[in-house]
Amino acid sequence: MPPAISTLNPAQGPAVGGNQVIISGTGLIGATAVHFGASSAAYTVVSGSSIRAIAPPGAGQVTVRVTSPSGTSNGLTYTYTTAPVLNSLVPGQGPTSGGNQVVLMGTGFTGASAVHFGAAPAVFTVNSGTQITATAPPGSGSVSVTVTTPGGTSNGVTYTYTTVAAPTLTDLDPHFGPTGGGNTVTIFGTGLTGTTAVHFGAQAATGIVVGGDSQVTATAPPGTDTVVVTVTTPGGTSDTSTGNPYYTYVPQPALASLIPDTGPATGGTNVTINGTALTYTDEVFFGAAPASFAAISDTIVVATSPPGAGSVPVTVHSPGGTSNSLAFTYE
């Protein structure tokens, strides 16, 4: 009976060939040829149930068969895959201690089995066929970054280890903003030249503009509660235990009632404004006129009505935005 083959391990490999493929089956003793498509492969008969073959160069999908004096086996499909191509690294440099995230861009990353920074393996996540996020291992000097898949190993792109100190963050302006984000925050510190990322907690900021070694502006992302702002440069990420890196997301204030909601045209009425998210109130308006006020708690603001006439909308403003309005009537 002719030989019969049941599995190929692996069933795919690089177009340049050269990888070892274990062919399992029966009746393999005395095999006289192994073919990948029309191409002959070098091989070693390990046993009656196993052959170790070296895949020849090829392309696309081909049929693997084993021939013996008893005939030719059934065929199994072997797929040639192209090697990945690495186009760029962001950032292309980082601290000798490693640990920073590097985004690799290119093609053919699906099924990646390894990422190397020089000879050092990196921990990585395949985001898509065109993007990988890797954590740079420790290193020094300039090294070649490569990606390995079943199709082979990519070209190398240079990554440079630097001895630049990590940035420090000393202060923010402002320290408060709306939960929807979108406001511009100025970040003060040292070593900010070359900033590659700004994070508000775990969320990445956008609109990063480096104003020099001591100042960066960024657009705050949406968020809640109080978070720590960090800056990342080729030297590393800022230490969260130094300076004043805290940023608080403030909900939009909402008004529920005014007590009283009427007063004399001459002003001077103390009005209790009830609502929510009032702690960070920075302005109170009766119509277009600003009023003096005191934020008593998150639910109460006491304001003194300015002079006015008729019915006017009362609003409260905070870093979270402007509240709804309630009517106050001058008598």
How do the helices and strands line up, and which of them pair or pack?
Layout: E1 4-9, E2 12-14, E3 20-26, E4 33-36, E5 39-40, E6 42-47, E7 50-54, E8 61-68, E9 71-72, E10 76-81, E11 85-90, E12 93-95, E13 101-107, E14 114-117, E15 120-121, E16 123-128, E17 131-135, E18 142-149, E19 152-153, E20 157-162, E21 168-173, E22 176-178, E23 184-190, E24 197-200, E25 203-204, E26 206-212, E27 215-219, E28 226-233, E29 236-237, E30 246-250, E31 254-259, E32 262-263, E33 270-276, E34 283-286, E35 289-290, E36 292-295, E37 300-304, E38 311-318, E39 321-322, E40 326-330
Parallel strand pairs: 2-10, 12-20, 22-30, 32-40
Antiparallel strand pairs: 1-3, 3-7, 4-5, 4-8, 6-7, 8-9, 8-10, 11-13, 13-17, 14-15, 14-18, 16-17, 18-19, 18-20, 21-23, 23-27, 24-25, 24-28, 26-27, 28-29, 28-30, 31-33, 33-37, 34-35, 34-38, 36-37, 38-39, 38-40
Task: From the structure above, extract its key features.
Immunoglobulin-like; semaphorin receptor activity; 331 residues; mainly beta; 0% helix; Cell shape-determining protein; single chain; 6-stranded mixed beta sheet; Ig_E-set; Ig-like_fold
Which secondary-structure class do the elements indicate? Answer: mainly beta
Q: What is the CATH superfamily of the largest domain?
A: Immunoglobulins
Shape, per Cα inertia axes: elongated
**Count the strands?**
40
Helix content: under 10%
Q: Supply the CATH class of the largest domain.
A: Mainly Beta
Count of all domains? 4
Unreliable residue stretches:
none
Biggest pleated sheet: 6 strands, mixed
**What's the tally of helices?**
0
- The CATH topology of the largest domain turns out to be Immunoglobulin-like
Our Rg estimate from Cα atoms comes to 34 Å
What distance separates the N and C termini? 110 Å
Q: How large a portion of the residues is in β-strands, by DSSP E? A: over 45%
Name the average pLDDT: 95
CATH architecture of the largest domain: Sandwich
Organism: Streptomyces radicis
Protein name: Cell shape-determining protein
GO molecular function: semaphorin receptor activity
InterPro entries: Ig-like_fold, Ig_E-set, IPT_dom, Plexin
